[in-house]
Amino acid sequence: VSAPSIKQAISGGRAVINGLDDLQEAKQLAVVLKAGALPVKSEIVELREVGASLGVENVNSGLFAGAVGLALVIGFMVLYYLGAGINSVIALVVNIVIIGAIMSMFHATLTLPGIAGIILTIGMAVDANVIIFERIREELRSGRSSRMAIHNGYAKAFTSIIDANVTTFLTAFILYQIGSGPIKGFGLTLMIGIAASLFTALYLTRFVFDAMAKDTDSSKLSIGSGLKFLNNPKFAVLKKAKVFSSISAVLFVVSLGLLATKGLNYSIDFTGGNIITIDVEGETNPQEVEKVLKSANIDVGSVKPISSATGGDDHIMISLSNQEGSGGARSAVAAALSASGIKSKIISEDLVGPSIGKDLKSDALMAVFWALIIILAYIRIRFGRNGFGFGFGSIVALGHDVIITLGIFAFFGIQVDAATIAAFLTIVGYSLNDTIVVFDRIRENTELMGKDSYGDRVNTSVNESFSRTFITSITTLFVVVILAVFGGLAIRDFAIAMTIGVVIGTYSSIFIASPFVVWWASRRPID
């Protein structure tokens, strides 16, 4: 009703509120104060409690997995790109420091969706470096000097990097504006990361390269020679387009069928209810725990063992499908286990009301819808006459990736929670970034290869982008596979979704999105 500012100490229990518009507003405020409180009832709709031991395990396992994945990325970049790889590592470290500094400055809380945003920005930062390095290699193979190769490499990579990052940034902005909870956190972290990665990729690495190339002898530039099958691939992508489209169509339809019949295994983030994690003394026996709870008339959804960071099934996760309330479920579970002689300790509890789940789903769908509209508009403007072909091609690839990933989740019964929502948003960002880079090479070759057919130009562009696509996917998989294996329960489902999404996203940008652009152009010739 009113939010006055306190300008001096309130002594003796009396205070004066200044600045009201008129006597009527003063009387209305007086009535509210005399009534003692506004007639508003409240109830807990969401509660998250994590015991110190479980929190430490999740943090330790997550940090260990992240460190191993990052070490693999660094090792690969240095081995494959030599001195240029060291340049990318410097940029990557600075990128992470900038993200951490900005989040610290605004006292931002680092959550799992936030970590997802950082993982995506790290992948995009590495991708930007790979695009630049591959362009420089192309210039060196054409006989350019080191300085000229660096200049041309950055000039030609600039448009691809900007387009890919701007479309992803716009998506992140929409997610931040429309989304709630984990969706908003993901969008904010992603925006910060994109800004940082653009700076490090386009300016910091250029500064280091200029220092490396003090003479004009291309042999002095340490950037490696790459692998033969990546340097000059000859894949007949367009000739096999019908085969790949048929495979994707079957997978897409099967995925829709699984989603319609079997459905997704939603966590309490969407359905509402309680999840209680307990530490049981002695040998863990989930079946016995489930039997005890059901005999006590507790509505149990599932009881399953979970591993701690030290290994072994040390904890048991109990899912209660109904809304017992914060204290009711906890007390009921503790009493039932104690009465049966099972010595246990509750180390974490999640309570979510069903309204929270509905809001999360609706916000996610609305955010993605508007993000797709913005992407289509931006690509239409940037890509000219065939802009709608590129725009719809990117959307088709995104839909292909998300639906098939959801179908795999439905088939295996993998739980869908707020973390996997963050993973799907990350897949959208990754797939979009990958597709835009390929599209940008198609646009460039459309202007340069005037005598070739449009299909030949697209096929050439896909092959020229293959090295960058393959390396970016490998480095991203280093991180997400390690997270899936060693990351602990809190991040495992997220990493599994990311692993599936990266593989499918790489496939779709080459074998689905690009042939779609050719099909669209055949309906509306642009030559």
Care to describe what's here?
The structure is a single chain. This protein is an alpha+beta fold and 527 residues long. The radius of gyration is 27 Å and the shape is globular. Helix 12 packs antiparallel against helix 13. It has a five-stranded antiparallel beta sheet. The protein has a two-stranded parallel ribbon with strand order 2-7. The chain is 70% helix and 7% strand. It has helices at residues 23-35, 52-81, 83-105, 112-141, 146-178, 182-212, 228-231, 241-261, 268-271, 286-295, 326-339, 354-382, 387-412, 418-448, 454-486, 489-523, and strands spanning 46-50, 265-266, 273-280, 300-306, 315-320, 344-352, 415-416. The longest helix has 35 residues, at 489-523. It contains 16 helices and seven strands.
